[in-house]
Amino acid sequence: MNKFKGVSKFLRYISNIIHENENLMSTNKPTPKGELLLRTLAMPADTNANGDIFGGWIMSQMDIAGGILAKETALGRTVTVAVDGMTFHKPVSVGDAVCVYGEVIKTGKTSMKIHLEVWAKPLIKGHDFNNSYLVTEGMFIYVSIDDDKKPKPIPAEHAVN
User: Fold this and answer.
1) CA distance 138 to 117
2) What is the pairing mode between strands 97-107 and 111-121?
3) CB-based contact 116:137 (threshold 8 Å)
4) SS3 115
5) Which value, to the nearest 10 degrees, does the dihedral of the CA atoms of residues 52, 54, 55, 61 take?
6) Paired sense of beta strands 133-144 and 35-41, if any
7) Cα-Cα-Cα-Cα dihedral of 71, 74, 76, 77, to 10°?
8) Cα distances (angstroms) measured from residue 135 to each of 20, 49, 90, 99
9) Average confidence (pLDDT) per 10 residues, the chain, 161 residues
10) What are phi and psi of 146, to 5 degrees?
11) Full-prediction pTM beyond 0.85?
């Protein structure tokens, strides 16, 4: 039996499909800010007493990722000098892919402020593999240094104001 009896029924069917797809595409699902800097796997050795991934481990991954972006920006050595606020939104589970995204928000003469976000992607069977979620975010401050560990100017072509 023909599923579409007449052109108007077929056009209504196509219109409904287009409308459903537009609704899916227009959902304001949050997305990571910045570029992907680091991706790793949360392991059992990284858990706290509650069985979730330890916040200190998450923070160290953020510092590693932020350090990569800081070195690329400074074209050389950098050091972490401050963490200006951290917010832990949701826990991370063992087996989740942990992805750190970041962007340089501002540069000074020798320093830079980098916004970092951690997103988790469940990889365990039975979870929604396409449902990444924001775990943690924070502002890290790095300083460019020379070989004598003295502050060194950030190249002008990498300045962000």
Assistant:
1) 7
2) antiparallel
3) yes
4) strand
5) -110
6) unpaired
7) -70
8) 30, 18, 5, 10
9) 58 61 60 96 95 96 98 97 96 95 97 98 71 95 97 93 85
10) -95, -175
11) no
